[in-house]
Write a structure and sequence with these properties.
The structure is a homodimer. Chain A is mostly helical. In chain A, 54% of the residues lie in helices and 12% in strands. The N terminus and C terminus of chain A are likely disordered.
Chain lengths: 246, 246
């Protein structure tokens, strides 16, 4: 492997041995290259150190782990739901890898206990737990390869912490669906508040969803959020109902 | 492998042998499970056939291949640019996997010649070439596994068709950057046209970028697109400059 991670000074708040034991007890395997794991738990608030101008922290590993987790989840859903279409698969994946879900998972598994960060600022970092979770996936991938990482995610995470039947029933967020879909299809979306009707407690917002610069649906509600959901749901039906390549 | 793909009637417009030879000449390996490859090239316009209520086409494989391609690109960029931050890596990846790039690639490699679709409607399907390219990646993954697929993508695609130095210099689309970033961080973004100033040919638009329901920057330009780019660039600097967990 060409990649040689940098070992930051002061990153060893827990010794190699301690961290190795913690990972063994959480994920059931012996990690190899400990530099990677120390780096995975290094939040940017914990160090100002730089290397060639970039700060040393877990954000590059998070980028990598995010992609690996998405791939493993796609593979798992593809095989688990052989009779469901790609819209369903996309939606299920966005439920599994939502930031809220990953933060919770990180906490349940005790991964959050391993994170090094500037304790005075934990309140201002909303997603450091989920970020470290993804960085850990990136570290496992570099340390042990894809097939091993996939097995860990399936055996130790998905099968232990997720109930697919519950996830299927979880209420659908059409705005997220549209955004996910647009992301996947490389389309540009935009929610625009175009008008308000009524006033005082009767005031309603009108929101249009624009796709690649063209309005495709309009929603109305007492809150902007509600109007967006409404516009997104209508758009979703339009996109899927018409079954054309928008 | 648990997955058993369905072999649609009439999907064999080219025989197994022909398709096998085509893939061998394009990608340099002998495919195994040919059902997967036939399915990868089956556009939804080519068949109305369904299985358990879902239509048989390449869209599920596209979902899978999209994720595998993202993962391989993340791995490649992570290792190729060891001193670049995750913002740079995210941006480079979005250039590599853009729909326009994948459509072009599909054509250059001759993959588009293998697609089965209703010829009368090719004009209305803007991205069928890139979609089939992703579906093919999904088929390779199911047929041969991750490591093999990664090697094919690196040796046969990235090294042959991409010039990283040129890609680095390619002009940056800040709106895409923000959307990619928000996607990765599971944040909600929204570009709102909030005002217009001037009139006639001097009319300018004012666009606000909202992040999780709060305006973070404002752009102004003679076109909505320009105002959005302007708002996105300011937001990008804000997000990265302040270096806080927005």
């Amino acid at each position: 492997m060409r990649f040689r991670p940098y070992k930051p000074a002061g990153a060893e708040f827990s010794s190699d041995k301690q961290l190795k034991q913690a990972i063994k007890s959480i994920l059931g395997y012996r990690p190899g290259n400990m530099h990677l794991y120390h780096l995975a738990f290094l939040h940017r608030s914990a160090t100002q150190e730089t290397l060639n101008g970039i700060r040393i922290n877990n954000e590059r590993l998070e980028f990598l782990g995010d992609a690996i987790l998405d791939a493993v989840a796609a593979d798992y859903l593809f095989k688990t739901f052989p009779t469901k279409d790609e819209g369903f698969l996309t939606e299920m994946r966005s439920k599994i890898v939502s930031r809220a879900m990953l933060n919770k998972l990180s906490q349940k598994m005790g991964i959050d206990q391993l994170i090094q960060l500037d304790g005075s600022s934990t309140g201002t970092f909303r997603s450091f737990k989920g970020d470290a979770f993804e960085a850990l996936i990136g570290a496992i991938y570099l340390d042990k390869g894809y097939d091993f990482t996939r097995k860990i995610i399936l055996d130790r995470i998905i099968r232990n912490y997720f109930n697919m039947d519950e996830l299927v029933l979880q209420e659908v967020n059409f705005k997220s669906k549209i955004i996910e879909w647009a992301q996947r299809e490389k389309r540009q979306t935009q929610f625009n508040v175009v008008d308000e009707v009524g006033s005082g407690y009767k005031k309603q917002y009108i929101v249009e969803l624009w796709l690649d610069g063209e309005a495709i649906a309009r929603g109305q509600d007492y809150s902007i959020k509600g109007a967006e959901q409404n516009a997104a749901e209508k758009s979703w039906q339009k996109i899927n109902g018409e079954n054309i390549d928008l």
